[in-house]
Amino acid sequence: MDPETERQWFRRKVLGKATDQIKASLRYLAENEKILLTNGQGHEIAVRGGNLEDIKKIVVFLPGRSLPEDCWATKFHVSTTVGFIHIVAAHDYLGILDKLRIPDDVRLYFEYRETVLPRLREAGTVVEEPDIMVAFLSEKDLPEPGSIGRLRAFVQDLDAFDLSNIMRDLQGHIVNPERSYDYYRIMEEFARVPRSVWREFKTRLVISLEASKARKPHRAFRFAFPKTDCTFMVASMDPDWPVTGVDGTRMRANAVAMFTEAAKYDLKTRLGVGLLISKDGEYFQLDWCVVDEPWADNPKMEDLLATTSLFGPARERMVDSFLFRDATYGVEV
Q: How much is the pTM?
């Protein structure tokens, strides 16, 4: 296919039809108070357009080999009706997902992309998608052409933050299973936070797993992410407490709820997501809990925190999400 035919296809299908489909989707959301969707679990969820605060509009296209350079350089389109629309080649989009992995980091990337691309166009600077990715990962003000080599130093520390194994069967380990939608609330809270939070949670998870494996008592962990007003808690069950049978089930449910509520109260957030780890013979049991209620003074909880050592001291610190490997000094942030 010749370049001019490819150019006409790009203008007609990508800049034309695809952007029109986005406009139609947004119009559909606006015209319907709620859209009912049923997932593979048989759960019906209402999507309400009015509740969607941050909608990223993205067109992903599969380019031909003869696509002209001016089409390749078209990385966004500004519509008079729906605003900024991202234009991304399919292989670049897959690269974005492969590098970032975490839903909120993907959201932040497109937020960054929307900020820098108009500035680059105004300056007449042409960059490739990897240049944008390097600048985002490095927290640079603007991408620079030819910086793709920096991606080779990026550390994809998947083992340090990946929680997919424990979340795969999360629905079967929720306290108050009759409240089946708690599963989605927990997944939603993890989807709203960056890789750094996943890594911090995984670190505490591994320590708590080792404590349960060794049957050694260990103080519970908790940390908050202020941006989403959520506290995350990880605890290992006291090895002297029952974990099986009617008494064990009740004990685990009460323990994860108590630890989660205490952690949430201690760090003064609205939300609390908690995980309790216990050992049953050769197997580990994972019990999850979510608490969502406004913070309010609670004398009983104050007394509990004052008279016990449920958690260690709290301190505020900044944690980087992305790491790079320096050729001389090893890993750097």
A: 0.89
